[in-house]
C-alpha cells in the first residue's frame, strides 16, 4: 500500500488484495468453486467467472463443467474482465469462448480493473472492451458502483447519473444491493430508455434534440 487518505484507513477482514503487474500463476477456479458447480448448474442460467485472463482458464472451467451431467440448455458464461492480462487477451478469450458452444458475455468489472491498471485508465479500458465485444457480437455487462449513492443513500450524484447514462452502450447494467435498489432500478430503466433514442452501442443516432 503506497497511498491512503488523510488520517489513515483500517484494513477490514476478508478483503481482497490486488497486485498489479504481478503474474501470480493462480488458478481462477478454486476448489470451492468446483464444489459449487453442481448447485450453479442446477439452478442458474449463467455463471460468472472471476479473474479469467487466458483462454486456458476457459478450458479449465469447461473441463470442470464436463464432469457434471449435461443440461438441456447450455449454461451461459460471463467472463469478468478485471486484470490487464485479461484486457490484452480479450480477443483470444472471445475466440476460445466461441468454440465452446455456450452463451458467452463479458463483464467490465471496473472496481478490480481500476485497482489493477490505475483509476486514470479505467475509462480508456472500458472503451476498448466495449469496442472489441461489439465487433465480436459479444454482449457486455457494465458493472461496479452504478448509481451507488442512490442505491445506498437514496440520492444520486450528478456524476453517477452521467455514468449510468453511458451504460446504455452495454447490453446489461449491474446494480449493487442497497436499501434504495428498487428506486435505482426504476430510475435506471427511465434513464436507459431515454438514452436508447440517442445512441446505439457506440454510435450516436442524432435524434432531434428537445429541451423537455
TrEMBL record:
Record domain Pyruvate kinase barrel: where: 5-177
UniProt cross-references to InterPro entries, sorted A to Z: Pyr_Knase (IPR001697), Pyrv/PenolPyrv_kinase-like_dom (IPR015813), Pyrv_kinase-like_dom_sf (IPR040442), Pyrv_Knase_brl (IPR015793)
Molecular-function GO terms, alphabetical: ATP binding; kinase activity; magnesium ion binding; potassium ion binding; pyruvate kinase activity
Pathway(s) it belongs to: Carbohydrate degradation; glycolysis; pyruvate from D-glyceraldehyde 3-phosphate: step 5/5
Enzyme class name: transferase
Catalytic activity reported: pyruvate + ATP = phosphoenolpyruvate + ADP + H(+)
Record's keyword annotation contains Transmembrane helix: no
Pfam family, one: PK
SUPFAM superfamilies with a match to the protein in the record: Phosphoenolpyruvate/pyruvate domain
EC number, as in UniProt: 2.7.1.40
Keywords from the UniProt entry: ATP-binding, Glycolysis, Kinase, Magnesium, Metal-binding, Nucleotide-binding, Pyruvate, Transferase
Family of this protein: Belongs to the pyruvate kinase family.
Designated name of the protein: Pyruvate kinase
Taxonomic placement: Bacteria, Pseudomonadati, Pseudomonadota, Alphaproteobacteria, Hyphomicrobiales
